[in-house]
Amino acid sequence: MNLKDKNSLVTGGSRGIGKSIAMKLAELGANVAITYSRSADAAEEVVKEMKALGVKAIAIQADAVDFARADEVINEIVEEWGSLDILVNNAGITKDNLILRMDEKAWDDVINTNLKSVFNYSKAAAKPMMRARGGSIINISSVVGISGNAGQSNYAASKAGIVGFTKSFAKELASRNIRANVVAPGYITTEMTGSLDEKLLEAIKSETPLGRPGEPEEVANSVAFLASEWSSYITGEVIRVDGGMAM
Ligand code: NAP
């Protein structure tokens, strides 16, 4: 697999799965821009690590919820590097609660950060990708969007929404040679899942046929495949990276 000279953007690339995806794309030779919301130092560290691999890399502060900012970010990349070939919509948050206890803000924040952001960046990326007659968009959903989860109705709705959006986008843009696919991770060891208690962790492991949590790099490998020409005839697909959890 080779992504040499491809230009890419990973939203939320400062930590966790997004960082692993950015590093994997860079390892395969792509130039990588990452966005972040608060972690400026961590984002600059990721940029340093990517540059050490011999590719171009930049970090851009951008709240993924901000519609107009998505256009600015993508224009900046296209002006700097000439094109945008790969977009990975990874930025995401959780604000868990049971539905009866969930307030409006927890609902809006999660839907806006996880789902509206995918619309913001996909729409903005479609323009340069159409001009270049090709591109690959990979949206990070979750197995929770497929199976639902008590205490995560906002998160599950946002992640299910990503699947519907991606399939619609894939149908609208296929004639322009732009592919769009979803990666749906199961339980992956990152800061997002770091606060889960031991009992819940054991329950998750017992529901996972492969019997262990996944590593961010295992998600990144699937994203790299979908970004590359190795998946040239795949669009509108959902790949679960979940150790069999949602099977
Ligand atoms: P994480 O460790 O909490 O990292 C989240 C990343 O998203 C950070 O880089 C963060 O930037 C960025 N971000 C958050 N809100 C943002 C905003 N408004 N604008 C721009 N960037 C923002 O999470 P993770 O576990 O790596 O998860 C990454 C993606 O995978 C998410 O979409 C998540 O839903 C999905 N996922 C994770 C798991 C899992 O088990 N970990 C399972 C299924 C799906 P800052 O550092 O600046 O805050």
Using the CA coordinates, give the radius of gyration.
Answer: 17 Å
Quickly count the helices.
Answer: 9
Q: How is the biggest beta sheet arranged? A: 7 strands, parallel
Helix content: 40-55%
Query: What sequence of helices (H) and strands (E) makes up the elements?
Result: EHEHEHEHEHHEHHHE
Chemical compounds bound to the protein: NADP nicotinamide-adenine-dinucleotide phosphate
Tally of strands: 7
Summarize the model shown.
It contains 9 helices and 7 strands; from the N terminus they run βαβαβαβαβααβαααβ. It has 247 residues and is of the alpha/beta class. Strands 3-2-1-4-5-6-7 form a 7-stranded parallel beta sheet, sandwiched between helices.
